[in-house]
Design goal:
eight-stranded parallel β-barrel; five-stranded parallel sheet; 28 strands; 19% strand
Amino acid sequence: MRRRYPNLTKPITIAGVTFRNRMFSAPMGGTDITNDGCIGPKSTAFYELRAKGGAAAVTVSECMVHPQTDGSHAYHLDPAILNSLACATYTADALRRHGAIPSLELSHSGMYAGTYMTDKTKQKSMHQWGPSDTTRPDGVEVKALTKELIDDIVASYGKVAGMAKRAGFEMLMIHAGHGWLLNQFLSPYFNKRTDEYGGSLENRCRLAIEVLKSVREAVGPRFPIELRLSGSELFEGGYDLDEGCRIAEQLEPYINLLHVSAGTYQRGFGNTHPSMFKAHGCNVYLAEEIKKHVKIPVATLGGISDPDQMEEIIASGKADIIYMARALLADPFIPRKVTEGKPEDIVTCLRCFTCMAERAATSTRRCTVNPLIGREIEGSEIQPAPVKKKVLVAGGGPGGLYAAYTAARRGHKVILCEKENELGGILKSEQAIPFKYEMYKLTSSYAKFARDAGVEIRLNTEVNAAYVENEKPDALIIAVGSVPFIPKIKGIDGDNVVIVNNYYREKNKVGDTVVVLGGGLAGCECAVHLGMEGKKVELVEMLDKLAPDCNVRQRPLLLEQVDKYVNVHLKYRGLEVTSDGVLCEDENGQKQLVPGGSVICAVGQRSRTDVVNELRDTAPWVSVIGDASRVSTITNAVYWGYHAALDI
């Protein structure tokens, strides 16, 4: 058959190993890492889902090669650990049996050892080792590695590489980017040595070359060795793209594939992992330029999920391989859908950082749009219900749509009712904010899935007790969402006031000077958007900080944009809306007028408890999900909706 994306789906052979397409799964840390560094069964299932989804290679991340100097945040391969090799073998086998090439990332954190320690009791007692004596920004002292320790670390790379091959891994990625040890030696910012490992570019590349030689000796000639390199460190004092090209030229003879990333994790999280405020594929230019300087295949990544963009990157010669991480959490089956020519079925990553924030907060994984993530071991296949029932879903937001879709896949007869003339619930408001548009598009994806599964969707249909009595469902899922909270202050109903949920309908009412009342996530994002449009924006928040409801990974990046585009007033309580702005009371009890011709009200949401109370006893089985249960997140709405449908 003729492929819709012929370049993206074309196999590629590297060092004698043939990969089934050009879509690879980038390194993502597992979730149940034991204190002695073994891969747990949840992590094996986590990686296996991407192999099932059609990725040509799946990289397990990260295996720390030298526990004596890096007891950091991931796996170890050590004969002294009873299950070490067995767990790795089970994982490699789980990937290979689905046709994916299993790859293992070998790494050393250097001066950032222990950053994500699995055993927190050991973190503060560790010595930190790097290229040079220094003090980290958090006050931790770092010691320069001695030549003896360097030799031992180099040898350990080879030792672990040999064990990885024995366990069944068929490719190794050597991590030399993102501020970890090999990058620290490559970087003039971190590396202040005066011996043969510092100073000139040749000297700064020496450790990486010694490591690559050690790995090659362990795995042999027909075995792909991939190097992960930051094409540019993207901060003052680090190396730039020009030097990144010269580093690539130095290391090319020792590798088979060059994986070009960007930035350093500790000084540019939003560069290494492009946020919703950046263009998709914003780091591709780094791979494109470096590819001009080397003859081996080059891989690129960075917020890429659109198959048309991926096809263009490969077809135009900017890179040979596309890596995805977050995109394959949102939809692990992207490679399979691309190969089968079904891009319309792809669920797009929102770049909201829920996945990474959850790992930082609870050492688990979760994805806003995919309730399977982090729970893959529970099963990824929907099982038919033993008794088919009539299911009524009240509310067409993300939670209701996913619940309806899941229930229909189980064989139930499903009716979804939405009181408005358009699906999406609170997501409808995102269509007017360009960097949130993918969140708005989520509605169309879920709606398509629901319709394809056989869900009957009834718009302009409000569900009340009489409606349920007439339909007589066996099960009712209440997903009626929330409504905006409107503060009881004078002037809030004025013609110059727009409720943030309605901004997409009334954006023409918003003038060039705006006061956003409410500094939560919704208010901050709207304020940033208005600032990006060139408007003068004042943001009023009664608390002492902004966006406390934003996750720990997204919040710093959001606040960077707020600082860039918005004038902020903290500890200001709104008293009255006037034609000239919002009259507020500051923390000292003084009245202050915050000027603006237009006012956006974004002070929060409240659950539709009146509707929930009316419907709670109208069907034999009832479940309340999403904001209708508790004002929360899209993540919870989708997850609760999925499991409500599984419980019927």
